[in-house]
Amino acid sequence: MKRFDLSLYLVLDPALCRPLGMVETARLAVAGGVTMVQLRDKGASPAQMIETGRALKAALADSGVSLIVNDDVEAAVAIGADGLHVGQDDMEVQTARQLIGPDMILGLSVETEALAARVDPAMVDYVGAGPVFTTATKPGHKPPIGMDGLARLIAATSLPAVAIGGLKVEHVATSLAAGAAGLAVVSAICGQPDPRTAALKLSQAIRKARS
Amino acid sequence: MKRFDLSLYLVLDPALCRPLGMVETARLAVAGGVTMVQLRDKGASPAQMIETGRALKAALADSGVSLIVNDDVEAAVAIGADGLHVGQDDMEVQTARQLIGPDMILGLSVETEALAARVDPAMVDYVGAGPVFTTATKPGHKPPIGMDGLARLIAATSLPAVAIGGLKVEHVATSLAAGAAGLAVVSAICGQPDPRTAALKLSQAIRKARS
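The joint structure predicted for all components is written out below.
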């Protein structure tokens, strides 16, 4: 049984994290209640990905927070990450699962109800559902689906879903009400003056919405 | 026990193979006696690698010839190739082995005696040893080691070695005498007017040198 907690899922962005760096941002965010961390750096070389990932792994050790690597399966395995996240334009999930083996977490981005319905729960452990709102963080993203679209998308799969795309603290209650197991954020934490406090406000809102 | 035959190892080059294409070149070369085929296409997209690789796999089906993919582990696994070949500048062999699992063939390029001595036979199945001579096929290659260098390099490892780098039919006997299990060629087959005949001459020379 794989253990991971999608409640507050930080996707690191190297540009937005520049003030403190990705590792320090992640460390502070975890202190504020982040439950999963994804390293996403499409511009990094394999060697840079591995170096940053190893530093992140060391920073997260003993925190119980899962480290997920976006798209780069070589880096995910070299780092000893807890999981891999792939998009629809990245490798096929069958290939990803074969490469990482049965024990690593595999996440898949889905942007439509039809894609969500097609995800194989034997291959994939969770879906990233969105973008809920339009966001500047991921240029060229798919059309936003809104909260109603999020609810429909999540209903189309048996897998736990983390909502993503322009989400802020005021969207916590509606995202969870739409069936999300948690919220993935980038700019709501990365580049905030105090990532710990930013994460804390989000995690408190999540706790409150669930109570 | 993995079975592969390094005797005559064709490394496909997309530019040199343009007249007939990589798949048809490989098919003809196998008819002429090639025993292993490597798909090497540093400029291809992942999707192109997978498409070409699947076509190659279909063309080689039932031939007993192993299909090896250069560097691209996602493609190697997606294709269902027999093996992966990595260079010193590619991923670490531990990572490669972890990604492809225990059953796929793993080859590693070594350019010096010191590198050859350091190869872990628990991780790697064969080494590519060279470049023996200077070659235009691989721009920016390491300094050529010559036949004496080849013999020293091969002596430094317990693994089977395939010699590579500017090898032609007149180098078959000396390469095998240096301890090579076989010869890897690119331009001696790719782009030759008749790849089947070119392969046949090489395979006959190998058979003769061994008798």
